[in-house]
Amino acid sequence: MDVTQWLLESDPSIRWQVMHDLQDEPAEAVATERSRVATEGWGARLLTLQDADGYWGGDEYGRDRKSVTWTLHSLRRLGVDPTDPRVRSAVSRVRENVLWRDWGDLPYFHGEVEECVNGGVIALAAYFGELGAGSDRMIGMLLDQQLDDGGWNCEPIEESRHSSFDSTLCVLEGFLAYEQALGHAPEAVTDARRRGEEYLLERSLFRRRSTGELILARYADFAFPPYWFYDVLRALDYFRSIGARPDPRIADAVDLLTSKRTDDGRWLAGTPHGGDVFFALDAPAGEPSPWNTLRALRVLRWYEGADGRAG
Q1: Are 128 and 178 in contact (CB under 8 A)?
Q2: Distance (Å, whole) CA 224 – CA 96
Q3: Mean pLDDT of all residues in the chain?
Q4: b/e string for 220-252 if b means 16 or more Cβ within 10 A?
């Protein structure tokens, strides 16, 4: 089957990323398609579900996925245009009204205390144009919270001095988005990000350093949206987004990714992470997944690109 054509028959959020990441379409055509995310399909539906007080689902974070944090992350992953007036209005309502009520009523874009949460909020602030004093606060905390092995862990330090893949990738995504939004960053941020990347690379993105075994089965189960959960596809897509040549230590992770391609050239949806949602953004588990297929194809295009594999 023509996998690209199949992807283009999906939501605008899929189509514009296919045009940009797989087809190298002209910037004007990509921007036109991207503009539809705020007015059609999943992105438009999420925007209309915001309450007048700026909240989604009445919660800033929440165990379910009907909250400010997870809705903004979904909009970011859909690639909604952050300059669209509808998006700016929604983000303004968050900035002006949403508070971390369990953390001293800090404004939303000032974050709270946990590494995985703050890494995500920095990524959101960078994407939606909300970097400022709150971001500086979170960056300072995260620099102090980096562990000796190079990563981060949301578990209390007295319980674990070893990093978590989940927490580490959340922080790395935030740091990278921060650097890319600014066009530059303090050297300490870049150094911390690279140390965090080394933590993952030294473990081939999914293996125990001591035995070489798969750390957790869910690392090989690709679900979209990923929320705070780590998996190999999310990690590979992160390293692609850096814009550098592939590190040779990701080869095993790429082999794992390609092993999951079906005979018709697509990837299947993973097991959804728990929590109530407004509506599903991907196919049911075990069915062909537009999101996994798109992300896998752009990772492979980067890995097997014109420069060849890194050596």
Answers
A1: no
A2: 29
A3: 95
A4: bbbbbbbbbbbbbbbbbbbbbebeeebbebbee
Please indicate, yes or no, whether residues 293 and 241 belong to a single structural domain of this protein.
Answer: yes
Residue 208 in domain: no
If asked whether residues 86 and 107 sit together in one domain, one would say no
Note whether 87 and 172 are same-domain residues: no
pLDDT tens, 176-200?
999 999 998 899 999 999 999 999 9
Considering the domain architecture, whether residues 162 and 108 belong to the same structural domain is answered as yes
Q: Is the peptide bond before 225 cis (omega within 30 degrees of 0)?
A: yes
Is residue 55 domain-resident? yes
Residue 41 falls within a domain, yes or no?
yes
In whole angstroms, give the CA distance from residue 255 to residue 162.
Answer: 27
Q: Is 58 left (phi over 0), alpha (psi -120 to 50) or beta?
A: left
293 and 264 in a common domain: yes
Q: Is 33 a residue whose pLDDT tops 90?
A: yes
* 160 contact partners, CB below 8 Å, separation of at least 6: 153
* CA–centroid distance for 66 within its chain: 17
Q: Specify the number of domains making up the chain.
A: 3
Residue 209: inside a domain: no
pTM, 2 dp? 0.96
The secondary structure of 10-46 as a DSSP string is: S-HHHHHHHHHHTS---HHHHHHHHHGGGTSHHHHHH
CB 20 within 8 A of CB 81: no
Structural domain boundaries, residue 131: 98-202
Note the pLDDT tens digit of each residue in 211-235. 999 999 999 999 999 999 999 999 9
The dihedral formed by the CA atoms of 218, 64, 162 and 202, expressed in degrees to the nearest 10: 40
Report how far residue 23's alpha carbon sits from residue 104's, in angstroms, rounded to the nearest whole number. 47
Query: Which pLDDT band holds residue 139 (cuts at 50, 70, 90)?
Result: very high
